[in-house]
Amino acid sequence: MRKNLAVLSGLICAVLLLIGCGGGGSDGSPVSPGVWTPTDTSTFSPFVPDSGSVYYSVPLADQNLDPNGESACAPTSLAMAIAYYRGGDPQAMVGRLFVEAGTNPAFGATDAGVASAAWTEGFTEARVYKTTAPLIEGVSSLVLDAAWLHAQLTAGHLVIAHVAQHAVLAVGFEPDGDIIYADPNGGEVTRKTWADFDAWWRYSGSTRSAITIQ
Fold first, then answer.
1. pTM score, two decimals?
2. Residue 34 region, left (φ>0) first, then alpha (ψ -120 to 50), else beta?
3. What fold, for 2-21+39-213?
4. Which of 1, 85, 146, 213 is the most exposed place for a label (fewest CB within 10 A)?
């Protein structure tokens, strides 16, 4: 019965194009929204676009440490991005972002909800991108491929990618094309070949969605 409910939850999550499937901690004092400045480039580990690789060493958070862990992967990904740009403990931000994104405890947060939470936190350049026609005002539609992802990362934009029943934070790429990402499910940095990441991202036909944080 539990397995059937998990499968049903996953199907609903995919149909609704939701990107919440994880969690993170919620204790600690809030970080005040407002103007932010990128972390000094000396903290990039490393940021070397001329060599064909980019990597941002983001503070990590684990979705499983939050009571809403199974539905807070997107808020946790956003927390890591905000902590990178503005500082602070990402684990302590997740509970607040979970609420700001309007996250459904059963299914997760929508792309628009996560972008709204980013705006609430002062990141008013956050944008939602999809491979399909715009669903809401302000959503851009284009081909989300390796070139697009590389361009975003090279420009200094972290990318929350909605993959199969999950969301991760893309933080870099290697010269051979491997994608480096922070996985909120465990709070680890790992990588996939572009082919594997692309298949993971194209979890439903040709559908891909992402949120850029800058």
1. 0.75
2. left
3. Cathepsin B; Chain A (3.90.70)
4. 1
